[in-house]
Amino acid sequence: MPAVLTVDPRSGVPIYLQIVEQIKRSIALGILQAGEQLPTVKQLAIDLTVNPNTVARAYRDLEREQVIETSPGRGSFVPANGAAQSPKVAAEVAGDALDLALREAKSVGLSRERVRELFDAALARWFVVEER
After folding, report:
1. The CATH number, out of the four listed (1.10.10.10, 3.40.50.620, 3.40.50.12780, 3.40.640.10), of the domain defined by the range 15-85
2. What is the pTM of this model?
3. Domains of the chain: which residue ranges?
């Protein structure tokens, strides 16, 4: 697995969710390719210095969402059919990032109107509006 996962126990986000989101992001960005095998639960737990049950929970959630496939005795894989690299997964990754940004904006006391102004400015920077 070429992606390097990290966890931050102080972030306030449960570790298993950090693992889920990082794997989704790696798939959406093409870092993890269709058919690629993920580390075993035990190996990822060792790499991240977390409880194996935490990794197992993340893998179960990813499997339930059909982001990965697990084959007993073989391991966990990014689906070969490319289903995990769908626009739905990309939208989930982006939505999670927006949620985090909005939570941060609210925590520092920005008003809804100011957040909308910032969002509109960011949209204008990142997406060119086609003239008709």
Report:
1. 1.10.10.10
2. 0.69
3. 15-85, 87-126
Cα(58)–Cα(13) distance, integer angstroms: 13
Residue 104 is which amino acid?
A: E
Which tokens hold the place of 66? 């059909």
Comparing CA positions, the residue from 107, 108, 41 lying closest to residue 5 is 41
Tell me how far apart the alpha carbons of residues 57 and 132 are, in angstroms, rounded to a whole number. Answer: 49
- Taken as a whole, the chain contains a residue count of 132
Q: Is 69 left (phi over 0), alpha (psi -120 to 50) or beta?
A: beta
pLDDT (tens digit, 9 = 90+) per residue, 71-122? Answer: 888 999 999 876 555 677 778 878 888 988 999 999 999 999 999 999 999 9
Phi-psi region of 59 (alpha: psi -120 to 50; beta: other; left: phi over 0): alpha
Here the tokens at position 128 are 């060119």
| Cβ 19 vs Cβ 54: under 8 Å | yes
Q: What would you measure as the largest C-alpha separation in the chain, in angstroms?
A: 56
Q: State which amino acid sits at residue 32.
A: L
Lookup: tokens for 7: 């966890």
